[in-house]
Write a structure and sequence with these properties.
alpha+beta, 4-stranded antiparallel beta sheet, 3-stranded antiparallel beta sheet, 1 helix, about 30% strand, stress response
């Protein structure tokens, strides 16, 4: 059985569609304040990240499917936290009969700004089921306190 491309094979249409998608991604990122995250599709890995905050900590959740814990590195400096790693080809997968693949392999790196009120000495990293969870506890002096207005 051979695969048949039923789509339009016009090269100019494909280029126009890719440019349109790239610009839409750019403007969408700019509208939502994520311009630094704007990644034009270079074929590399750009892990999806969610950052939440509660009274005690900032929490980062990064999706890293297919990545092994041993291949993840987390570094923190004065004002940023960087996690990086590599998704490697499986040794069990044969490429002889692959007809189509959207899987990506290679190195990745994401840098997240760290607020001044984070206790950098107590940042914790856990990895389970393809999700990297980073907990960045706030310093004691940074917790909010309700003040009564007299």
């Amino acid at each position: 059985m051979s695969l048949i491309n039923w789509g339009n094979n016009n090269t100019l249409d494909n280029i126009e569609r890719r440019m349109t998608n790239m610009m839409e991604n750019f403007w969408d990122s700019a509208r939502h304040g994520r311009l630094s995250e704007c990644a034009f599709d270079t074929g590399g890995i750009n892990p999806a990240v969610e950052i939440t905050e509660n009274d005690k900590a900032f929490n980062v959740h990064a999706e890293l499917p297919g990545v092994h814990k041993e291949d993840i590195h987390v570094n923190v400096n004065d004002n940023s936290l960087t996690f990086s790693g590599e998704s490697k080809h499986s040794t069990q997968t044969s490429t002889d009969n692959v007809r189509y693949s959207e899987r990506r392999y290679g190195s990745f790196s994401r840098t997240i700004p760290v607020p001044d009120n984070v206790d950098k000495d107590h940042i914790e990293a856990n990895f389970k089921d393809g999700v990297l969870d980073l907990s960045m506890p706030k310093t004691k002096s940074s917790t909010s306190k309700r003040i009564t207005v007299n």
